[in-house]
Amino acid sequence: MDILTIKNEFLFFAQKINVPEKYWPEFGNSKFGSGPVVELGPHNQLLYIHYDRGEEVEKEYAVDLDDLMYRIFNYITFAMSSDYESKHRKENEDSRRQKISIQEKLLGELSQVWKDRCHRENLYILKSYPFDDLSQKRINYSIELKNTGMSPQDAWANAVKKFPLPISI
Questions:
Q1: I want to staple 46 with a disulfide (CB 3.0 to 4.6 A). Which of 31, 61, 68, 116 is the partner?
Q2: Whole-model pTM?
Q3: For all residues of the chain together, what is the average pLDDT?
């Protein structure tokens, strides 16, 4: 396995969902010290490394080329879905609803296995951090109550009564 083979595999998938170049990782050693980089480690280990200001902040070890592509496109489709959601935000909806839906759709255009893997990962997160479509209403109401002179604790308690917190699955 070499970097050119990996890059060609990336390009094959990237063109399928029209990935803008701003989301592309670097291939080989990082030139800029920022963003994701695909590298070959000792013994041709497939690495997906994230840098910020020249510092390594995360290193992922892929077990094979398919796993590496999943890691790359999971990151890219999350960024693409986040950008889309921020421009098409729906009031009183947890922003993650659109992000997850779009991300899983994009991954599904590349591989059903990747879509299913991402879906399982999202379900795992949502068990601990369920969707909260009422969060903004709850916050605004709490602020409104505080502005009338209510203590922050009482304002929050009343806001939660009116707009309940989500229940974990």
A1: 68
A2: 0.88
A3: 94
